[in-house]
UniProtKB/TrEMBL annotation:
Molecular functions (GO terms): hydrolase activity; zinc ion binding
Origin: domain of life: Bacteria
CDD domains: nucleoside_deaminase
Pfam families linked: dCMP_cyt_deam_1 (PF00383)
Protein name: Nucleoside deaminase
PROSITE patterns: CYT_DCMP_DEAMINASES_1, CYT_DCMP_DEAMINASES_2
Domain annotation CMP/dCMP-type deaminase: ranges: 29-145
Originating organism: Rubellimicrobium rubrum
PANTHER family associated with the record: CYTOSINE DEAMINASE FAMILY MEMBER, RIBOFLAVIN BIOSYNTHESIS PROTEIN PYRD, CHLOROPLASTIC
Matches recorded under InterPro entries: APOBEC/CMP_deaminase_Zn-bd, CMP_dCMP_dom, Cytidine_deaminase-like
Positions of the UniProt region annotated as Disordered: 1-30
UniProt entry tagged with the keyword Metal-binding: yes
Length: 177
């Protein structure tokens, strides 16, 4: 994205060329805090031999739900962390519409989870490890990037990847979890 100050000549309050832009705001403190919690959980699970991928759903600054990958625990190939977190958040709200919520994940959501995110109405995803930085095993349509999904969805969602990536990349770089 272009964060050139020239994009905001009318707004002297935004002189920082690395600062968030109004159309693509960077991760909020609450999103970063949730991601940091998710990373800590993922690392603890991975160290215990479990599924080291954790996702959360936030409504504003409130964490509605945070769940790990439950594929093996639930014997369900679709029970990725993002799916589990969205299901739990929907249960908390007693509704399937999660419009306005944010999905946070330690790893870039796969194609299935991006689809589920859209079905839930979520239009913002913040994640740590990016597809290009991790083992290919985490994606079934490796030829498609999140930018491709973004374009295919008519840019209907915002994606912020690489947030705190350095703190978790060791789990996914060689596909060990
Ligand atoms: Zn997934």
């Amino acid at each position: 994205m272009d964060r050139s100050p020239a994009d905001h000549p009318e707004d002297p309050a935004m002189p920082d060329p690395l600062g968030p832009t109004p159309t693509d705001p960077g991760p909020t403190p609450a999103e970063i805090a949730a991601l940091r919690d998710a990373i800590a959980q993922a690392r603890a699970l991975a160290d215990a031999g479990g599924p080291g991928i954790v996702a959360a759903v936030l409504a504003g600054d409130r964490v509605l739900a945070m769940r790990p990958n439950e594929v093996k625990d639930r014997t369900d190939p679709s029970r990725h962390a993002e799916i589990a977190a969205m299901a739990a958040a929907a249960e908390v709200l007693a509704q399937v519409d999660l419009t306005g919520a944010t999905l946070v994940s330690t790893l870039q959501p796969c194609e299935m989870c991006l689809g589920a995110m859209r079905w839930a109405g979520i239009s913002r995803v913040v994640f740590a490890a990016r597809q290009e930085a991790v083992h290919p095993k985490y994606f079934q349509f490796g030829g498609l990037t999140i930018a491709d999904f973004h374009a295919a969805a008519d840019k209907g969602f915002a994606h912020l990847g690489g947030v705190l990536e350095d703190e978790v990349i060791d789990l996914y770089a060689d596909g060990r979890v």
